[in-house]
């Protein structure tokens, strides 16, 4: 797990970087304002991590052009392909992971009984639905989540049918290298860089 990321106050550098990205994009959705953000937090029993919290309150509440590919969702919305039969999303329940989990690879290496497969499904459900906001989708069931509760609070994760991967450089791994956190993720996209590209220099 990465440490040292400030999720309690919006760093001026993060705010400036986010303003710069949004300023050139007329398709930005207007910000919500602090009253709406605090009401959302009270309803769901969470405090949104910075700089995302300031972003939706003061800068913008969604961006139709991305990131990700199909646009940055307004606060608490789900993508059109998310589906209606999913479990309730519980933002106040801690996100259960602290490192990548390639469940598709794990399951393909073993022949699972029906009971073992169901146990895997039960373990996966909280990864999708606990402690995170949906930021948007790159299509094909690839969803970006901002973690709002638990040890990974403030980090952005890519979660799809194959597994869950954190965005940002971490000790011992570089599955998705870059500057961790919401501002790093947005800036990475604005620079036109691949999510799985070269590590930040």
TrEMBL record:
Knr4/Smi1-like domain span: 37-162
Name of the protein: Knr4/Smi1-like domain-containing protein
Organism: Streptomyces nanshensis
